[in-house]
Every structure is written in C-alpha cells, then in structure tokens.
Amino acid sequence: MREMVTVRTDVGPSEPGWLGEMTGAIAAEVVQKVFPSQKGRGGFHAQVSRFVRSDLARVASAANGQQDLAAAHLNLPAEYGRWLAECGFPASAVRDAYWIGMRQMLEQWAKRGWTGAVVDATGGNGATSETVALVTTAAFDCTERGIKRAAGAYDARLAELRGQGSLRRRAVVQEILGSAVESGGEAEAALGYRLSQSHVCVLLHPSEPDEAKESLRAARSETGAVDLLAVALGASWCTWLGYGMAAGVETAGRLRDVLREAGVRATIGGPRDGTEGFRRAYREARRAEDLTALLAGDGTVLSYHDVALEDVLLQDPARAAQFAGDELGAFALDSPRAARMRETLYTWLSTGSRTVTATRLGVHENTVRQRLRSAADVLGANYQQRRTELLSALKIRCALGPMDAPPTAPAHLDTSRC
C-alpha cells in the first residue's frame, strides 16, 4: 500500500487547476442534461458549480482516505436538495443530476489522467488500476450518500413549502406569467398582492435565502414599495415590488443602487403597470439576466432599462460585433489610445459640443479638437454624417468588451473620394 498525503481541494484563487476545469465541465453537462431551461443563466450555473466543486473535493478526499475532509462536505447535498425544492424542480432532478454528474466526473478525470484524484507520498499522480478503483469506488459511494441526503432534504423542504402556501403562490404566479390570468380577483387573493398597480421585478441569485430576504426588505423600504411578492422560479428568487401609483424609471435606478450596496447579484425589469406589466417586468428581468453573459463588466446588478438599447443591438451578437468592428476600425481594439478615442467620440456625438465633451472628460478643449481631427484618419473625413451608426457601434463595443482587429479598414473610409 502506498502512503497517502493530503489532496489540495481548497476553493478560491489558489484552488488547483484541475478542480476548476473539471467543475466547469461537469456543471455544464448537468445543466444541459437535467436543467436545459436554465442553460446560459449565470446565477444558476454558479450554484450548480458550487455543489459540483464540493462533490469533487469530497470524492478526492474519500479516495485518499481522508474521511474527515470528505465528511466536511456532507452538508452540501442537503442544501442542494432544499434548493431544488425551493426552485420548483421535480424530485427526479435530485437523482438525475447526481448520476449524470458522477458519470461526467469519471470521464473528465480519465481524460486528465486522473490528475488530482489520488496523490502518492511523492506528490505524483499515477494513473494506475489502483487509482481508478479507488476513485470509482469513492465516486459511487459519495453519489449514493449524496442522493440519500439530498432527497431527504428535498422532501422535508417541499412539505414545509406546501404548509406555508408557497407552492400555491408559485402556481398562481406561473398561471399569470403564462397569460392564463388577465385580471385580479382570485389571483390577487391567493397572492396577497395587487396586480393593478405598478410593478418592478427583481431576480435575485443569493447563495442563502436569508440573504435574499434581507436585501428585499431593504429594497422595499428604500424605494417606498407598498407591496411585495416573492416566489422561487427556476434558480432565482423572483420578486415583484408593487407601487401604488405609476412608478418612474428612477425607481428602478434607486432599486439598482440599493441592491448593489447590499452586494447581491440581481437583474431588474420594469417598472410596468397592471397585469400585463407584471408579466412584462418579469420578461425584462429575465432578458437582463440573459444579457449578463454577453455584456462586459461585473454585471452584479443589471437593470433592463439601462441595457434596453443593447438588447436590441445584440439580438445577433456575432453580427453586432462585426458591425462594431466595421464601423470603428482600429478604435475597436483594446488599447489605451482606442479607449480614449471611443470615450471622446461617444461624448461628442451624444452632446454635439466640444466644450461639454472637454468638461466631462476633464481635458482641454484643444485636446478634444485634436482627437476629433485624428478620428478622420481611421473613420473617414465624413464620419460625422454617420452619427447614428457610430453611436450604435460604440454602444456595442462597450457592451461586448474587447474584440479582434477588423480584417479591413471601415468600408465607408473612402466615401468622400467617390
């Protein structure tokens, strides 16, 4: 028997490379096969990845005889079961996700020569028959134990939700979103929430339910909402904040700022009025959630109102990127000079004033004049006539972030000579 040593399965910036790579591959497979409706939703993928990473660490620890370390991860399966119940997924998802995840785990480890699975006393990762047997046995054992704990937690949480009326509220909300309900009445009575008011929808992606509740209480207080409805839909805490009178876009802005200060991940839709507004605010929040995977930046809290134009421009991201590259030429590149030129062009094209542009950028007006003059070398002498196209291209470039150099100069570069 070879001597076993501790396997590094720490999570964070210093986690071993194999752990992060395998976590991503396994989580993607689980989402695609078990939760296809959640594909592309970053918050859901992050939660699945969290559970997968824990299972990987548990299997590696068990395979190396580190039973204490393996036991330290046993609380996650129960949390996983409760989470699935709250999200409204069927009980079969518990077992399906575990077995698909285990199969993908073994396949991924085999592809990597069992790196990180079992480490010997010299720090080596020998891909021996003993390694395969140890890891396979540990994987089956951890999977069976995980399913048992997760299924028990799922059933217990489902019973709690049923007793609290949460399942009934979720069903009514789904009927409304599916256009089966056009007015208040019974639906309002079941929800304890008025549909005739102005609605802002918030999709939260907390790691803990208590975090979501605290953030929502603060949001309601800070924005003056008179009504609040929260249900779990998919992997999100879906919340509608109701405002007795028509709410303006500034309400969504205040809400965005409050949630950012709380440090949560969220997307916002609305405000919209009435029953149809209830649905539309939800659709906007979902669309903002989908856009977070495309947009550059941290995307912690995103309001649809702030990215509505980007949504239209990015219906076909590949074509949008090509359009931006064609319009901006070298100014689409990821360089300090290109960034300065984009900022100058966007401000000037938006305001039409060199003086205002200089003030906003904190530079001399002559600097703005020189930059605009040099822009003609890249964009063509008559680039001012393409104001709408350039503003759209600059919006796309800001949304998508760095892009490759365009293969040719902008198509309109020599139009002044025609």
From TrEMBL:
Residues 342-396 form the PucR C-terminal helix-turn-helix domain. InterPro entries: CdaR-like_regulators, CdaR_GGDEF, PucR_C-HTH_dom, PucR_C-HTH_sf, RsbRD_N_dom. Residues 187-288 form the CdaR GGDEF-like domain. Gene3D superfamilies: PucR C-terminal helix-turn-helix domain. Residues 21-168 form the RsbT co-antagonist protein RsbRD N-terminal domain. PANTHER family: CARBOHYDRATE DIACID REGULATOR (PTHR33744), DNA-BINDING TRANSCRIPTIONAL ACTIVATOR ADER (PTHR33744:SF1). Belongs to the CdaR family. This is PucR C-terminal helix-turn-helix domain-containing protein. It comes from Actinacidiphila yanglinensis.
